[in-house]
Design a protein that fits this description.
189 residues; mainly alpha; 78% helix; globular
Length: 189
């Protein structure tokens, strides 16, 4: 039963997750934290880890949730083999809608690239994607990340501000900033 629920959740994420990983965060959070497969704190950790590992957030979360959800739902499914099966199913299901959509529409879109209808569709999707990304930023500003003004929160916000200044104003390379933020996090926490 858990596998069908996982397939349904990640099928919805794959079908309606427009705009990439950040735009999909609200939908992913609703589908995986809502049923109790993971906590809000674990979701935040998945987002952080997904940024450090190759691949998009949707696929990384599908692989991880597919692995842990069977064991969380029933002790009888705590074997790693059930987790691997869940990982494979969720990863395949989240990728499948996009794969099929791109396969079947790429030719159509390239043939009608100058069409007013196609241009209008893409023009309408841009602000939606920006709104979904803004929603993801607000979603991550939760009590699990920013409870009260504890020293940990102050250190986290300081690292965030320093990283923003380094990338946006000082034009440091993002990989360097990520590495320095990791070192700062290790030393401060």
């Amino acid at each position: 039963m858990i596998y069908l629920r996982l397939i349904w959740a990640y099928l919805k994420i794959g079908l309606f997750g427009f705009g990439g990983g950040y735009a999909m965060l609200a939908l992913i959070e609703r589908e995986i934290v809502g049923p109790g497969w993971i906590t809000e704190q674990m979701f935040t950790d998945i987002v952080a880890i997904s940024q450090m590992t190759p691949g998009p957030i949707g696929i990384n979360s599908a692989t991880y949730i597919g692995y842990v959800a069977p064991a969380e739902s029933s002790a009888a499914l705590s074997s790693p083999l059930f987790g691997i099966l869940g990982s494979l199913l969720c990863t395949l299901v989240v990728v499948l809608p996009s794969f099929l959509l791109v396969t079947y529409t790429s030719h159509l879109i390239s043939r009608h690239r100058e069409s007013t209808l196609i241009k209008g569709i893409f023009t309408g999707l841009r602000p939606v994607v920006v709104g979904l990304i803004a929603s993801a930023a607000l979603l991550l500003m939760n009590s699990a990340n920013f409870g009260s003004a504890t020293p940990d929160v102050i250190r986290s916000v300081s690292i965030c501000i320093a990283a923003f200044v380094a990338v946006y104003f000082l034009k440091w390379h993002p990989i360097l900033v990520i590495a320095l933020a990791g070192v700062a996090g290790y030393l401060l926490f």
